[in-house]
């Protein structure tokens, strides 16, 4: 949507609602069957996030796992009551690239129906776990459209060892024409001919805050585009349980600078203008 003359660009604040034991990198050491018996910390972490957003006057989009929503329906209702957008992260945190077309259709349909029943609002958006839609499974975007979603934020146009579609457009686009699904990629900034990850996650914790702020400001000023920022509830939780057996690389990526994350999110709410995905890209009220 166009912005009023002189108004700052509204960026999209997004939260991927999952718990620490559901992270894809922990899949080799944490059996899915053990999830119900593990200590869940997502509810307390979401309460902290809701308080931060309320203090900053920020409305956000919460891409929520159906598995979580089923167990914490009151938490989902508090998200909605706070004026935030409820969107889907699938049901069971399965990568889209690890599912057949039929399995994916069942997962995204199930999660959409569940979230709409609990939240009592239409669910228009979807984000694939681990940004697992790319060149090899673009059919997933058709499945999402058929299921009634209007946009996806599932492609990260960078090169990464676990995900990424480097040749994808950097900004919102319609892969199958304007009558299809809108894809809103995670934000990258250009440095010469190189794309830099500028949309949050582990990069935001690893890099100096000033660099992340500079990249997002560059996207706003030079490209004239909103930035898409994402983080997870467990990233604000340095006291979370630490499962044994993870590789050094996985441990570094997961735990680096968790203790600084809350302060950085608070600073983001002061340094930029923020809003929900659906308002920015679909023009909803």
From TrEMBL:
Signal peptide: none annotated. It comes from the Bacteria. Pfam families: DUF3473, Polysacc_deac_1. Residues 32-285 form the NodB homology domain. InterPro entries: DUF3473 (IPR022560), Glyco_hydro/deAcase_b/a-brl (IPR011330), NODB_dom (IPR002509), PuuE_HpPgdA-like (IPR045235), XrtA_polysacc_deacetyl (IPR014344). SUPFAM superfamilies: Glycoside hydrolase/deacetylase (SSF88713). NCBIfam families: pepcterm_polyde (TIGR03006). This is DUF3473 domain-containing protein.
